[in-house]
Amino acid sequence: MGHPVLRRVADPVADPTDPEIQRLVLDMAETLEDAAGAGLAAPQVHMSSRIILFIVPAARATHENEEDRPRGLQVLINPEIEPVGDETVPGWEGCLSIPGIRGIVPRHVHIRYRGLDLHGNPVEREARGFHARVVQHEMDHLDGILYLDRMPDLSLLTFNEEVRYFPDDLSELAFRRGDAK
């Protein structure tokens, strides 16, 4: 947090098959693995390019439907996103660019996204659950938005070690705080 590239709109990628882009994606994949993260956007490695990488670990997927099943490393170049419906849900988010803390962020429950893969082939999917959350989080990085900007209540920001003191049911927390719909 603090690097100017994190606060600007990232530039589109002209050619996903360009060797420089291929190297950048490989470097990002290594960074994501080394950090044991679930997602990474090019601005987080100080590159203003519209590229995101993410995984949906089995432990975070609901397995209820195709839209939130475990997924290995996914690469999206020049991604676009649209909500499917208006429903949002609060959930914990952390970020490799803001280490050591988490906050409760409302995100759309159901989204549709599209972009290109590393070979320039179109990708289009719908996502729910953690899958939807990680895509929305990484997409925000491409538009200069940090999860802190999405938090309606900064009193719900905490150190990772303190998360255990919050209730498991975040809807109950929102209800007690008067934020529930």
UniProtKB/TrEMBL annotation:
Matches recorded under PANTHER family = PEPTIDE DEFORMYLASE (PTHR10458:SF22)
What gene codes for this chain?
A: def_1
HAMAP family from the entry? Pep_deformylase
Checking NCBIfam families in the record gives: pept_deformyl, PRK00150.1-3
What role is this protein assigned?
Removes the formyl group from the N-terminal Met of newly synthesized proteins. Requires at least a dipeptide for an efficient rate of reaction. N-terminal L-methionine is a prerequisite for activity but the enzyme has broad specificity at other positions.
Task: Identify the Pfam families for this entry.
Answer: Pep_deformylase (PF01327)
- Write down the chemical reaction(s) this protein catalyses: N-terminal N-formyl-L-methionyl-[peptide] + H2O = N-terminal L-methionyl-[peptide] + formate
Q: Biological process GO terms, please?
A: translation
As for family, the record states: Belongs to the polypeptide deformylase family.
Query: Keywords for this entry?
Result: Hydrolase, Iron, Metal-binding, Protein biosynthesis
Q: Which cofactor does it need?
A: Fe(2+)
Coiled-coil residues are none
Co-factor remark: Binds 1 Fe(2+) ion.
- Native source organism of the sequence: Skermanella aerolata
The residues annotated as the active site are E138
In alphabetical order, the GO MF annotations are:
metal ion binding; peptide deformylase activity
Q: What is this protein called?
A: Peptide deformylase
User: Where along this sequence does the record place binding of Fe cation?
Assistant: C95, H137, H141
